[in-house]
Design brief:
Radius of gyration: 42 Å
Strand content: 5-15%
Distance between the termini: 36 Å
Number of strands: 11
Oligomer: single chain
Helix content: 55-70%
CATH architecture of one domain: 2-Layer Sandwich
């Protein structure tokens, strides 16, 4: 819990790794995820570092693995279970993996190219068969024309003699040529217009659509094609026609000169297609066997290559000592994990067989460490809400523990409904029960992943909604009479206030709580169910729901205390008046109760005598509180800049500062301890650096004063606006209740009013519609609205008061957190 509240204590450490065991030591650290490495070669280009060739080999293997995964996915072959977690391969085994992958890539490439060539040949033969079959009708045309056939009338004798073939036309002296082929259906109209414009009518175009879909050789998608036959006059016209066909990417095939030749070609095509089907089947079967064999090891290879590449990347961040026999690395590490870090280095040295062990050494530093907050599957969702606002500064108080309670509670105040809360809780509970299901965890749907990762947030929101729904006594806009109402109508008749004559003429009657016996006592839990029948229910609920820093001590005295006084003297006093009026005034004297709003306004105008006082001595106390609040503003504005100015200038001149340069230190450790002690006392001496050298940082008083002025104005105005912003709790709560009531009145009440036999059957679709609208509007849309408003209340109104969020998140070197290139491309 302390880690969740303040974060882990971090330290900077140096790792001394022997050259022979560095690879194994970093592999051990990657499995554990303990440390964050710093770059000790920031001025060296990425392509000039020592292990750049090894990283290039890893990228080449990632390319081959990506190719294999795409082919496996294309063949619809499922990968084995991903429970395996192989270790990083040793450098001497890398070449064997590389050769195996290259050999598999070459074999797979050859088989794939052969398959594609066979498929293209099969497509060409299939198209040729369709062309011969359809063009037979163009020569021996029946009297009934097909709807898609078109023919020009330059040669009217073709219309008269339906049995005349083209050899007869050649004997008549008409030097005709023929071009036949296939074209995509979408291009046929433009193709026809182009032929007419270019050839000036010296062509005959006939075409008909192929009944079945043919696979496009370019895209592989099924497309509709059209068979065409062009008869042209003269060689020059023929050259133009061929160029037009090339422009429109037509598939041209030779046209037989006689029916005998046509029949021979068709018979030969049929035999070749059968042979191609057999060869293609065997090729696909062999390709599938190769892919199945590759799929058994491809996931292991992906993990190994990812780990190997990450290790070499970390080795490039290290530097060599003067002897070039030892690697030096600097890491941020949690103090509590130092013993585990030492054991990991010892294990890496043992695996590599090094004679000299690697070791770790803590070093002093004044660099701000990264922030590490350990979470589990329950707290990680709430921590993500806080981190979305900003990562906390080092050892800063973390709002996440408070958010675990306040976030679902504020959501439930706006969403409070027992029925809706139960549905939300059951949905979240189902996700929690099946949280280890791989199909639910690893989906491509980002919206579902967002819901699944926030399952514990949804569970808490649902449970709190059930609680507030009981307080509001609201279940699908209806009240539950569990304990019996505390209001009695009989007492109104007994007292003579109501009479039978007046009841029949009035639609609205008023219960008077001052009449003895009308109000017998409060409802044990929540709102009395009788208010669901009251005409002033909305007015009553309106009233009901509305009632509903570190190691720098000068920040406490000059910033925190003035802000606290300003807030408590004004709005703390407002809360006090609300509670006082609530406790002192009862239903009998409620008409004489003064208005808190008028009193609060008169408090600033110093006009307390103008209205009836709420309590004795109220005027004097209000004047005192206003004076304290006003005086805290200049302290907040000028206190911190003046103190820092005196700290950086006045104390040096007076010789009061206990400077490090005036004290002889026997070791760097003593210097580090002294600096840490002075930081705790609040001194911000800026002559410290991570290298131990003194670097004087200039203090700009004007800049500090401007920054503090902006903060003061923002805080004072924010106290008013942020306090008013909490009214959204009341507004959204009423809106949700009214929308639920409207949905009930316009849907369910219509079905329940039918008292005939048909009404039961009619109630089934009505209830289905009501359920769909309830889930889509009241649960999803209204829930999302309440979630966003609760998020804003935490970020702007809550965390803005104390949480800076200016830190840097601790990013440990861990193989489990590093996505592979295949995962980036969505192949895994």
């Amino acid at each position: 819990m302390s880690s969740l509240l303040r974060g882990e204590e971090m330290c900077l450490a140096q790792l001394f790794l022997q050259s022979g065991s560095a690879y194994d030591c970093i592999s051990e650290l990657g499995e554990l995820g303990l440390v964050e490495f710093r770059d000790l070669n920031p001025s060296v280009n990425a392509f000039q570092r020592k292990h750049v060739n090894e990283i290039k080999k890893c990228e080449e293997m990632e390319r081959i693995l990506g190719y294999l995964l795409r082919e496996v996915k294309k063949a619809d072959i499922s990968l084995p279970e991903r429970d395996v977690n192989p270790g990083a391969p040793l450098p001497k085994h890398v070449m064997a993996i590389m050769e195996q992958l290259q050999r598999l890539e070459v074999e797979l490439g050859e088989v794939t190219r052969n398959k594609e060539k066979l498929q293209r040949n099969l497509l060409e033969l299939t198209e040729y068969t369709h062309m011969l079959r359809i063009t037979r009708n163009f020569v021996q045309r029946t009297a009934e024309r097909e709807p898609l056939q078109v023919q020009y009338e330059e040669f009217p004798f073709l219309e008269k003699d339906t049995m005349m073939d083209y050899s007869s036309m050649q004997r008549l002296g008409a030097k005709l040529g023929f071009i036949s082929g296939l074209i995509q259906r979408t291009k046929i109209e433009a193709f026809e217009r182009m032929l007419w414009r270019v050839c000036k009518g010296y062509t005959i175009l006939s075409y008909a659509e192929v009944e079945e879909y043919l696979d496009s050789p370019d895209t592989g998608e099924p497309t509709k094609s059209v068979v065409f036959l062009i008869s042209y006059w003269g060689e020059q016209i023929g050259q133009k026609v061929k160029k037009i066909c090339d422009c429109y990417h037509c598939h041209l095939y030779p046209y037989p000169s006689s029916n005998e030749e046509r029949n021979d070609v068709v018979e030969g095509l049929r035999t070749r297609i059968q042979d191609l089907h057999t060869v293609l089947y065997r090729t696909e079967d062999y390709l599938r066997q190769v892919l199945i064999k590759a799929s058994e090891s491809v996931y292991t290879w992906v993990i190994q290559v990812k780990k190997m590449k990450a290790i070499y990347y970390i080795l490039n961040l290290c530097s060599f000592d003067v002897t070039n026999k030892c690697l030096i690395a600097e890491v941020w590490c949690p103090v509590n994990d130092i013993p585990t870090l030492r054991r990991a280095l010892e294990e890496g040295s043992r695996k590599s067989g090094a004679t000299v062990p690697s070791f770790v050494n803590r070093i002093p530093t004044n660099d701000t460490p990264p922030t590490l907050i350990r979470t589990n599957k329950f707290t990680s969702g709430f921590q993500s809400i806080v981190d979305a606002y900003g990562v906390g500064s080092y050892r800063e108080v973390n709002p996440a523990p408070f958010t675990i309670i306040t976030f679902p509670f504020l959501f439930a105040v706006m969403f409070g409904d027992l029925g809706h809360g139960v549905i939300m809780t059951l949905f979240a509970f189902w996700m929690v029960l099946y949280e280890n299901n791989r199909k639910l965890k690893r989906t491509r749907n980002e919206i579902w992943n967002t819901f699944f990762e926030g399952r514990y947030i949804i569970l808490m929101m649902g449970l709190f909604s059930i609680y507030t729904g009981l307080i509001y006594n609201d279940c699908f806009s209806k009240s539950l009479n569990i304990f019996g109402s505390g209001w009695s109508v009989k007492a109104m008749f007994n007292a003579g206030v109501w009479k039978m004559d007046g009841i029949h003429g009035n639609h609205f009657l008023t219960l008077d709580p001052n009449v003895t016996g009308v109000f017998t006592g409060p409802y044990p839990l929540g709102i009395d169910p009788i208010w669901n029948l009251a005409s002033n229910r909305l007015t009553f609920l309106n009233s009901y729901k509305m009632k509903m820093h570190f190691r720098k001590k000068y920040n406490v005295y000059l910033v925190f205390l003035p802000e606290l006084l300003f807030l408590l003297c004004l709005f703390g006093y407002l809360v006090f008046m609300i509670l006082y009026k609530w406790l002192v005034f009862s239903a009998k004297d409620s008409r004489q109760a003064p208005s808190i709003l008028i009193h609060f306004i008169n408090m600033f105008l110093m006009q307390g005598d103008a209205v009836q006082p709420l309590y004795p001595g109220q005027n004097g106390l209000q004047v005192f509180l206003v004076v304290i609040a006003v005086l805290s503003v200049p302290v907040l504005l000028l206190g911190k800049p003046l103190y820092l100015y005196w700290l950086h200038n006045g104390r040096h001149r007076l010789g009061m500062y206990r400077g490090y340069e005036r004290v002889r230190r026997n070791s760097e450790e003593e210097l580090y301890l002294l600096r840490a002690h002075d930081m705790e006392e609040g001194s911000s001496h800026s002559d410290l650096s991570s290298s131990g050298e003194c670097q004087t940082e200039e203090f700009d008083f004007a800049d500090e004063l401007l920054h503090q002025a902006i903060h003061t104005i923002e805080y004072c105005l924010g106290c008013v606006s942020n306090t008013a912003s909490y009214l959204r709790l009341w507004a959204l709560s009423l809106a949700h209740a009214q929308l639920s009531e409207v949905l009930w009145a316009m849907v369910m009440r219509v079905g329940l009013k039918m008292d005939t036999t048909l009404g039961v059957l009619f109630l089934v679709p009505v209830f289905g519609l009501f359920a769909v609208l309830t889930v889509s509007i009241l649960l999803v849309m209204e829930g999302l609205s309440a979630f966003l408003h609760a998020l804003r209340l935490h970020w702007v109104e809550f965390q803005n008061k104390f949480y800076s969020g200016m830190g840097v998140k601790f990013c440990p070197f861990a193989f489990s957190l590093l996505p592979s290139s295949a995962e980036h491309e969505g192949l895994l």
